[in-house]
Design brief:
Order of helices and strands: HHHHHHHHHHHHHHH
Low-confidence stretches: none
Shape: globular
Radius of gyration: 23 Å
Strand content: under 5%
Distance between the termini: 66 Å
Number of helices: 15
Structural class: mainly alpha
Length: 307
């Protein structure tokens, strides 16, 4: 009786929940992934797919990486608390075969992207709440930092546009398509007018360009690329946020290349500092690294010397 009740539960529901909360909070994502894994084990077809996928090269590579990283936590001088923090992040690789096994038995696996996009739109609405003073946040975003927020918005908008134009099930649902279009418009305005996320801007422009190259060929793809370049110039001309963030890149790069000490306080300067320190840490231990718990110790001396 209990097993029969569990077997009525579709593990894909929990994956959809994880996809929905991905742009919002990590704790529900972890909970839904665990629930998906537990319920998936009650389905014979999923178990068979899981056994097959455990032998897949991608799965074996992921598990090998996780095992190696866990082993590096035993390095001398490794900080156990720091190693544990990193280990919980990399342990999520273990969910790869389970997620794939569930998706292989799901009638419409792309629905997970629908739920992800819905979660992104909720984060966009929350961002507008911050902008209008209805919610409190130190950033123009509410759930995530603007870099992550903008990246998620770019992916969700790309998927939503695809659903509007190429989804057969929405052909006769004009009202639904209209609501999706309004959501895309609000999200793009949020992305390019209010949120200074350069990664999201690049992602929003690169996805249609790469799809154009893949689907339409090189010539038509390059035409799409030229059109996107013109759109980028238009955004640079009309959006203060875009213009300031783009100009900021060149000015900060000039400061960094001239050796200005104030570069360390800038966004690009900090990234270049992280890059140089990381390269130095790699040079000291190029083959086996410094371990999950040895990252801070590996870069601290170089960081102090450069400050």
């Amino acid at each position: 009786m209990g097993v029969n009740w569990v077997q009525r539960i579709n593990p894909a529901w929990f994956l959809a929940g994880a996809a929905f909360f991905l742009p919002i909070k990590p704790a529900p994502v972890n909970l839904f992934l665990l629930l998906a894994f537990v319920t998936a084990l009650f389905f014979k077809e999923i178990r068979l797919n899981l056994l097959m996928l455990l032998k897949h090269p991608v799965t074996l590579s992921a598990f090998a990486l996780v095992c190696f990283l866990f082993f590096t936590a035993l390095y001398p001088g490794s900080d156990s608390q720091l190693a544990g923090d990193y280990a919980t992040k990399y342990l999520r690789f273990a969910f790869i075969p389970m997620i794939a096994a569930v998706l292989m038995t799901t009638e419409k696996p792309s629905r997970l992207l629908d739920w992800f996009s819905l979660g992104v739109f909720l984060s966009v609405l929350a961002s507008y709440g911050v902008i209008l003073g209805l919610l409190e946040s130190d950033l123009p975003t509410y759930f995530k930092a603007y870099l992550t927020h903008s990246f998620f918005v770019a992916i969700a908008c790309s998927w939503a546009v695809y659903r509007i134009f190429f989804s057969p099930e929405l052909n006769r649902r004009t009202v639904v398509r209209t609501f999706i279009a309004i959501g895309v418009l609000l999200s793009l305005v949020n992305l390019f007018v209010f949120v200074p996320g350069r990664s999201g801007w690049m992602t929003a422009l690169l996805i249609p360009f790469l799809l154009g190259l893949r689907v339409l060929g090189v010539r038509k793809g390059l035409l799409i690329g030229f059109g996107l370049f013109c759109i980028a110039l238009l955004l640079f001309a009309v959006s203060d946020v875009v213009r300031l963030r783009v100009v900021e890149v060149f000015s900060e790069f000039q400061m960094w290349s001239s050796g200005d000490p104030q570069t360390k306080e800038t966004s690009l300067g900090q990234r270049m500092l992280y890059l140089t320190i990381s390269l130095e840490a790699i040079q000291t231990s190029p083959w086996f690294g410094h371990g999950l718990g040895g990252v801070v110790a590996a870069v601290s001396d170089a960081a102090i010397s450069k400050n």
